[in-house]
Amino acid sequence: MRHRPYLVGAAMGLFAGVAIAGAPAMATPCTNLQSLPLQDTTITSATDNNTGVFGPPGPSQITGLPNFCRVTATLTPTSDSSIKIEIWLPEKTKWNGRFLGTGGGGFQGIISTGALASGIQAGFAATNSDLGTGSSGCSPLYCGSDGITNALATAFGNPGVPTTGLFGHPERIKDFGFRAIHLMTVRGKEIAKAFYNQHADKAYFAGCSTGGQNALMEAQRFPDDYDGILAGAAAFNRTHLHMAGLSSWQNTHASPGRFIQPGQMTLINKAVLAQCVGQDGGASTDQFLTDPRDCHFDPKVLQCTGGNVPPACLTADQVTTIRNYYAGTIDQVNGQVINPGSERGNETDDVRALGLAFAEQLPEPPFDGLFYWVYGAAFGQLSSATNFANFDFHHDVDTVDDQLAKVLNANSTDLGEFREHGGKLLMYHGWADPLIPSQSSINYFNALVGNDGRGFQQASFNSNASPGLQRTQSFARLFMVPGMYHCSGGPGPNTFDALSPLVNWVENGVAPDTITATKFVGDTPPAVQMTRPLCVYPKVAKYNGSGSTSIAANFTCITDEPDFNQTPAPKFGP
Hints:
By secondary structure, the chain is an alpha/beta fold. The chain has helices spanning 7-13, 113-121, 149-155, 170-196, 210-221, 238-252, 264-276, 316-327, 356-359, 369-375, 397-408, 416-420, 439-453, 458-461, 467-473, 499-508; strands spanning 41-49, 53-54, 62-63, 68-75, 83-90, 98-102, 125-129, 202-208, 228-232, 329-330, 337-339, 424-430, 476-481, 514-520, 528-535, 539-543, 555-559.
């Protein structure tokens, strides 16, 4: 993440490293933290940063930072644990009195310094964790900070460091699943109190993807940790989401003819938009779908006829691939849905979006490190009884769930304690997410409504008069983001501030009904391409019929008609 430098910060940086030779280092409130005694915690460093920057010079350097105290620590709740955390503490005059826990992505494994920087720039005391995985959370091919960067590298011939991940380390799997974020929160608050000599007034958590899973775990298991929780594209149904990655890879590797060629995902996306855009509340000029569930595009319309050949059309095998892509992860024996399929409108050739074009290029499924935690190195050997190429979605799912589901899946819809202490949950998810199916977040929210509504009915749910919906929206709200990929990017308005509305809801009782999202030209500020309101689910943004479709004010959030939402079989979660 790059930050625009402030002139004051840059000038201060010229003198920040100057010291008088032979002079002893002076103790400060920050450096004194290194001797702070905390349970199962070793504070490894506590240093003042008055340079306005973080990181070595170059494109990855973070600039425009306030003066802050950087604390690093290692937590060891068990003899096998090694959880790294950092907490960045802006100087007291810049602190807003709030604490912010932040999440990460994939298998984590490093500290997300960009999230910490954004936190202190907004005035929060911010903390982050590597979730205790280090470099051990990945598979032999996909090792590293979050399972994304190295997976992309592997796709182009740069394999990672061999490892069997957390196989044989059940306590470290617990750390990844729920314990690291909770202890990061507890220790982070203690360190902040010691530094400021007072407790934070309010505590918030913000994360997307794995960070979204962390967010829901906190609401479910540790409801008193945070007053407000922001959960984006939550990987909450963890084991079954990773099974979807296996299924998608097996889908394209079933035979050489099943591969989707470069350019064909764009071909499919254009056909989807030509058939469906503007029918779901958005404008007819949109390059994305406002609610893809209203689209029933069949890729067979692109099947090659006459003298047409790929990539200008699809073969019968490729039609099967895309139909399966939309259908989801299915137990082929009994027809049960294990994980929902991808929504129409998320098709892209950009491998950075982590969709089908990304996954099919890899020699084994992306993010399959989780299965190495169960089967060990044998999972990567094609001669093994169970491996990534022959994983059986009728017989093998229970084996994985028996070991990991209770620890990794944040599927509980009992948020009673979180609600009763005044907690607020704000969820969001991109409708064009190619990695975590968009309807997963809707399924979780609907399950919350069902739990609070005592007899959830789809028809009554879509009415503003639904008691279950009203009760749920008193503490939990969902915002779907048209045209956004996984956590960011995509053809739709994909930049928005959801944390400020959450703070306003917690502290002033003002529940958000809309959040304005912006699409920047080239996804790079400051030139604005368009704005659009994000509507509290189940409402959608409908064009008023006049004025520019690039201006949010020309859209109104209306209650949508009931739409079918693909849900897993009950045994596989909401």
